[in-house]
Amino acid sequence: MRNRNLPFVCLLLYGLAGFSATSWAGAIGFRVSPVFSGPELRLHVEARFRGDADGTTILALPHSFGSVQHLNRCIESLQVSPLLSDLQFSEDSSFVTVHHAPGQNLLMSYRVVQDFENDQLSMRYGLRPLLQPEWFHVLGNCLFLLPDGWNNFDVTIDWTGFPSYWNIHNSFGSQQQHQQFQAVGTNWLESVFVGGDFRILEAEVFEQPVFLALRGDDWAFSDSSLLALLQQTIAIQREFWQDRDIPYYTMTLLPLAPRPGMAGSRNFAHYQYMGMGLTNSFAAFATPSPQLSIDDLSHLFHHELMHDWIGCKIRNGGPAEDMQFGWFSEGFTEYFAYKNMLAGGVISPEQYVERLNFDFFDPLYSEPMGQVSNKLVATGFFHCRDIAQLHYWRGCVFAFYLDNRIKMRSEGQQDLHDFMLEMLDYYYESNVDLYNNFDFFLKNLSRYLGEDATPYYHRFVLQGELIPPNEFQLPPYWKIFVDSDGLPILQLDQTAPGWREGMQR
């Protein structure tokens, strides 16, 4: 099996001591330790690295991560030595200029803080640093400051001074005082680091470790059943992507506080949940409730784990807040998440058809703003939930359209799954992204369609035109009807030959 993890090679070292950066270009060593002050916890971080040869090094501060803004407020007491002049902060506090002797070895120190007082975790704060007296949960982009412009990293992390009874776990290993890995690019910052009273469970998928790190005692399911769901989901998806060479995987789960006055629709009546796909991991949050079952979390797992490939390995590229390819990273993720749930027996064919109709076709074709341009959707993605949903709906319907069009053109010998495997080989192994190399997407899609894919992309994605029902090219087991309101409805003909095999391809 081909190793698709070449751009990111992680070496976990056990029982090593010391704190020094090596001579390898991009070497940086971190030491992380706790600072307990009454009811507050801060993380003190020191970093050693060589400054740039011209005597000026730019440090990148955390700024935004998706919809989360002003992350620079979570960094305090930043110091660098030795310096030739004071630190110079950019106007928006996204960068810090450091003047030093050319090629000088530098020591940087700072503290990571929780920048809100409420200890009741809500969806609003889930992706900010969470630091409580008994535990912490921090994403890598807030925990580690880096010199701007570096592309190759030789990273060491030492965890010192934490209580002996604390569990320390992260996207790169578990219960290790010293960690070392090499990475290309800064994707490794999209990771999760936890410590404290987390329960750490371990299983295996294709002989590789899978970890579950969670808190909270009020879940309506057992830790072991959640681990089993995680194990099953990872196995299904690694088989789908023909990608088993993943050395480890972590899921974290934190309880959300009940939202006051929860009422209304099923999704918000008793609980909320959300997740964020990260490097070798994903962070999940949910409201403990008797109504929140394992089945409710199944789609969340499949969606977020799918992001390990669509979003992490096949990357959008561009600035983090640029969602012009959200139709792909979210919409295609939804389509293949449900395809995997069907193939793995998590949902039935009837449930699969129901989800396509009621979660994607119906809302897209009935939404008054369903035909706004992709540019408007991308601009409003982090500011308006109704606008953001268009990426999910539009992308999923477009994926369904392409999948079946490819099947019909190839007489069932190819499908969108084959196209995605080629996408993975090209974008991940070449370390490129859609933002800078979208021409490959269109060129390769055109080859699968047997015609130029550009007009379809412009009509149904960029311009936002709804795909006319009569333009869907469907195998015999799919039927599409238009109801009295003009909305397309999918129906599955289970008497048609080969329907089961065709549905699961």
Describe this structure in words.
The protein has 3 domains: 1-197, Immunoglobulin-like, CATH 2.60.40; 200-308, Neutral Protease Domain 2 (Neutral Protease, domain 2); 316-504. A 7-stranded mixed sheet has the order 1-15-12-2-3-8-5, with no helix packed on it. The chain is α+β, with helices and mostly antiparallel strands. It has helices at residues 140-143, 223-240, 266-269, 294-306, 326-343, 349-366, 374-380, 385-409, 416-429, 434-449, 454-462, 499-504; strands spanning 8-11, 27-37, 40-50, 56-60, 75-81, 88-89, 95-99, 105-112, 130-132, 135-139, 146-147, 152-159, 167-170, 173-174, 178-184, 192-196, 199-205, 208-214, 249-255, 273-278, 281-286, 478-482, 488-492. Strand 18 (208-214), helix 2 (223-240) and strand 19 form a beta-alpha-beta unit. Mean pLDDT is 89; it is low at 1-24 and 262-269. The longest helix has 25 residues, at 385-409. It starts with 7 loop residues before the first strand and ends with a helix.
List keywords for this structure.
505 residues; alpha+beta; Immunoglobulin-like; Neutral Protease, domain 2; 3 domains; seven-stranded mixed sheet; 12 helices; 23 strands; 26% strand; globular; disordered N terminus
